[in-house]
Design a protein that fits this description.
The chain is an alpha+beta fold and 472 residues long. The chain is 32% helix and 31% strand. A hairpin with a 3-residue loop joins strand 4 and strand 5. Helix 1 crosses helix 3.
């Protein structure tokens, strides 16, 4: 790293204000509703709600401090000031360097700072496949918030850069309990019968994409590819992202959930798995899920499908190759002998589906950090395929257009070295005037196009029935 680059990030990080104002409030029995209310309040141009492990909700807002990386450049802002540097085709490395500078500037003296952000799927092409396929859009974006609220069953903690921001959040939290917002009646395309019509859209093109991918696999080009299809929402009343998030969270059982308006994307999602989790002590884990059956209110039928899932050769093979590659990617960044499969082929319900689930863990090497692990594991193998480079090439051939946020990651990290990144699946996504859903299925040599179409529909039912619309 050149002295100019180091000086750029030291200057930026030194300009980031610490969170100096703190207050602790009583806990509330419904943190999801309160976090959603904070999101709806419009405290700032950018915000994120992130549900972490253990029923902990984080709300972060602000617009003064941000970091955005493209393939060729990275831009940072603080209170209207801008710093720009070249990335030389390595935006994640530049991003990590900026975050290292932030950690150095916000050590024990100023206190730990958290950041919230996302990584677009196209970052994968720079990391593992064809750099030309990464495009010229933003690949990483992070917000360092002006106010951060953590809601748990024990207490609500508000931290802010000054008393003004602290009062804004604390006053909202002191108001009467939030009520369910009024919602416009869904257009007929979104009624229960219409939901099925919506999620079945575009299946002809998807059937062809699956068939072509199976041909590639049987030709020996790759073992598996997770082929997805986009489902645009029809024009009409605006989707209410906070209301959709709250309604969907009531009916889902995600590993992580998130609601955001950040860096040009809007999203409400219920992630079934994490891309990676890095703790302060260097413990890193990833949670591959692969192999799917529907999950509904009939428990006897759920058990029948569960038995079918754990005995299906195609699903077992798909899951096993995903775990094998997750192990290899972990071993590349972890201490020798530390990588282990702590859980293998458990069955986890995730909203309208159930999955085969495993967990691979390890300890980061002494010379490694959370972004080294992210570079190795991103994007999740369960959203790409095996081998990852070959799968990325196949997806570029067979899917229409870039994925953007879908298949990427939404994350929360800290200057203390933690990083928690959720895989962006089961998510309502908005960009500009367009809003859409997307779902994929793991395609192997044994795949049948009709079954993969059915699997995408099963996954879309985790979000589509919960869409809510503005009452305006």
């Amino acid at each position: 790293m050149s002295n100019d680059t180091r000086n750029t990030w030291d200057s930026w990080a030194g300009s980031v204000p610490p969170l100096t104002s703190t207050t602790t409030l009583e806990a509330d029995h419904d943190p999801a509703a309160w976090a959603t209310r904070l999101a709806r309040a419009g405290l700032a141009d950018q915000y994120m709600v992130y549900e972490a492990e253990g029923d902990v909700w984080h709300f972060a807002a602000g617009s003064a401090v941000s970091l955005t990386a493209h393939a060729t450049r990275i831009t940072a802002q603080v209170e209207g000031r801008t710093w720009t540097s070249r990335t030389d085709g390595r935006p994640l490395t530049a991003f990590a360097t900026a975050m290292d500078a932030l950690a150095a500037a916000h050590g024990t003296h100023t206190g730990e700072r958290h950041f919230y952000g996302w990584a677009a799927f196209e970052l994968a092409h720079l990391l593992h496949a064809d750099p030309a396929a990464a495009g010229d859009g933003p690949l990483l974006h992070a917000l360092i918030p002006s106010v951060e609220v953590t809601l748990t069953g024990k207490e609500t903690v508000v931290r802010a850069v000054d008393e003004a921001w602290l009062r804004k959040a604390a006053d909202l939290l002191a108001e009467p309990a939030p009520q369910q917002p009024s919602e416009r009646t869904a257009p007929k395309e979104m009624t229960p019968g219409g939901t099925e019509h919506l999620i079945a859209a575009g299946t002809a093109g998807y059937r062809s994409a699956v068939a072509r991918t199976v041909e590639d696999i049987r030709a020996g080009l790759l073992e598996k590819a997770v082929v997805s299809r986009k489902v645009p929402l029809p024009a009409g009343p605006a989707v209410d992202f906070p209301a959709t998030y709250l309604a969907g969270r009531r009916s889902n059982t995600p590993a992580r959930s998130y609601l955001l308006d950040l860096g040009g994307y809007r999203a409400a999602g219920f992630s079934p798995e994490t891309v990676l989790e890095v703790a302060k002590n260097g413990r890193v884990s990833t949670q591959p899920l692969a192999g799917t059956r529907a999950y509904g209110p009939d428990q006897a039928e759920n058990e029948r499908r569960r038995a079918e899932l754990i005995s299906d050769p195609k699903e077992i093979h798909e899951h096993a190759v995903s775990v094998r590659l997750a192990w290899e990617e972990m071993a590349a960044v972890c201490r020798i002998g530390s990588v282990a499969v702590e859980e293998f082929m458990a069955v986890r319900p995730r909203g309208s589906v159930q999955h085969l689930a495993s967990r691979v863990t390890g300890r980061l090497r002494k010379d490694g950090g959370p972004w080294d692990a992210f570079a190795s594991l991103f994007p999740a193998i369960t959203a790409t395929g095996v081998s990852k480079p070959a799968a990325l090439h196949a997806l570029a051939r067979h899917e229409q257009g870039p994925r953007g946020l879908y298949g990427g990651a939404v994350f929360r990290g800290s200057t203390a070295g933690t990083l928690d990144a959720a895989l962006v699946l089961r998510t309502l996504i908005g960009e500009g005037e367009e809003t859409w859903l997307r779902a994929g299925a793991g395609v192997t040599a044994q795949s049948l196009p009709e079954r993969e179409i059915e699997e995408t529909c099963e996954k879309l039912r985790s979000v589509a029935p919960h869409l809510r619309f503005s009452a305006d």
